[in-house]
Amino acid sequence: MPMSSFDASAAITSAGGSIDVSSASKGYVGASAVNDSRLKFQVVRGERSYNYDLPGDGTPIICPINMGDGAYTFRIMQNTSGSSYVEVASATADVKLESEFAPYLVPNVFCNYTPSSAAVTQARSLVAGAQNEGEVVRAIYDWVVDTIAYDKAKAAELADATGYVPNPDSTLSSREGICFDYASLAAAMFRSLGIPCQIVTGYVSPDNIYHAWNMIYIDGRWVSAQITVNPDTWTRVDLTFAAAGAGGTIGDGTTYTDRYVY
Length: 262
Known about the structure:
- The protein contains six helices and 16 strands.
- By secondary structure, it is an alpha+beta fold.
- It has two domains: 8-100, Immunoglobulin-like (Sandwich), CATH 2.60.40; 118-261, C8orf32 fold.
- The chain has a four-stranded antiparallel sheet, with no helix packed on it.
- A hairpin with a 2-residue loop joins strand 1 and strand 2 (17-20).
- Helix 1 (118-126) packs across helix 5 and helix 2 (133-147) runs antiparallel to helix 5.
C-alpha cells in the first residue's frame, strides 16, 4: 500500500516553516510550521494554485502535486491582517511524476489514513471475495451508499464555512457525513486497495450547488443502475447522490463542473 509521509530531515526550513519536496515524484509535498499567526500552504504551477490551511503547531500536512509534470513553487504564507499574507518559506521543484496516478494513490490532507485505519480495514473486509477491480468498486460503492447517511444538520452548519477537513475514520464511525465526507471515505478505501481515486470539488446543476465527488480509474468495467465504470478512463462516482437522505442539497446529478482535484 503506497503511503505518504513528511520527512523533516529532507525539508527546506526557513522562519519556522519547513517544506519537504523529497517525494514530489510520488505525487505529494509536505509542509510544517510553528507560528502563532494563521498560515496557508500554497502549491503553484504556472497560473494555477491550490491553497491549504496549515496548522501553526508543527503538525505536518501532505498535499497532492496534482497539476501534472513541470516546475512547481511551494510557499508557506503567514497572515498579516485581513486577507493579506506574506511568504515565510518557499521551495521549488521540477516535478516528473512516477505516474499520472501517483497523487491519487496515497493519503493527503483531505484523505488521511494509515495501514491501521478503520477505513482501510473495512475496505479490505468488503473486497475479500472480489475477483477483479470492477467487483471491488461495486463492493465499496454499495456499502458506502447503504451504510453512510447524509447529515443535513452538518451540511447546514457548514454551508458558509471554509477550511473543513474530512476524516474518513470519523465518517466510518459516525455512519453519517456530508458530500466531502463521502468522497474522502471512498478515496481512502479505493486508494488503500490500489485503485486511483480523485476527490473532486466543484458545482453541480441545476443551481450551481458546491459539491464533492470522486473520479476512479480501473482496468475493468462495472455497470449499475446509477453508474457505468469503464476501463482505462477516469469515471465519476458520486456516492452522495446515490445515498439516501441528501435530497436537493446535492443537485440533480446531471451536470458537473470541476473546480479542484485532490
